[in-house]
Amino acid sequence: MRKLLKALALKPDDWRLLLRAWCLLLLADVRLRRHSYRQVQAGLAFRGSPAAPGDVPALVRRVVRFTDLAARHHLRPMSCLRRALAMQRLLAERGVVTQLRIGVRKDGKEFGAHAWLEYAGKPIHDGAAPAGRFAPLAAPGARTRVRPIAPGPAGPGTDMVDKQEKTHGFAGNDPKGT
Fold it and tell me: What was the pLDDT predicted at 79?
């Protein structure tokens, strides 16, 4: 009964945002099942020129709240990637440019991956910084520099490694390309 009362208390703008989030989650889900990630992200990209937002933190909290609500009441479980793609589109439509980050981690034999959004370099959805728990992969189109390391068995200068590989165990996770 409390859920029904809360739903009835929503304003028309809240209902529109909730419905839009629900539809974008469905769109992201269907497209991710049929197309590559790059195609899905390009298809969900906002191409308009929205007005600059006023209170960005309040807007971000509102979009996160209603996207999470839509995800909890969806037809299928919505992964972090689907939620991040939907939130990125909703925020872009409102003039907030975000960066979608994907990170990985390995705990013993377990491998994990996570997607999150950042605004001004800070995560907007997850409580603790995901970058502390997950090693971020390079953003699409980001350049990473490769440098030679000490000569190996194949001869001088033939062993190449991204400097991040030494610290995180894999290459390509330095979003600044340094």
Answer: 92
- DSSP letters, 156-178, are TT--EEEHHHHHHSSSS--TT--
Query: Taking every pair of C-alpha atoms in the chain, what is the biggest distance, in angstroms?
Result: 73
CB 25 within 8 A of CB 67: yes
The predicted-structure confidence for 67-93, as pLDDT tens digits, reads as follows 999 999 999 999 999 999 999 999 998
Outline where DSSP puts E strands in 37-167. 99-107, 110-119, 122-123, 135-136, 146-148, 160-162
Number of folded domains in the chain? 1
Rounded CA-CA distance 17/9 in Å is 14
Nearest to 131 by CA among 85, 86, 83, 174: 174
pTM for the model stands at 0.70
Q: What angle do CA 104, 105, 108 make, to 5 degrees?
A: 150
Q: Is residue 106 part of a domain?
A: no
Domain presence at residue 112 = no
Q: Under 8 Å CB-to-CB from 151, ≥6 apart: which residues? A: 157, 158, 159
Taking only the tens place, the pLDDT of each residue in 121-139 is 888 876 556 666 787 776 6
State the Cα angle at 127 between 139 and 17, rounded to 5°.
Answer: 80
Do 170 and 134 meet the contact criterion of CB atoms below 8 Å apart? no
Q: Does residue 148 fall inside a structural domain?
A: no
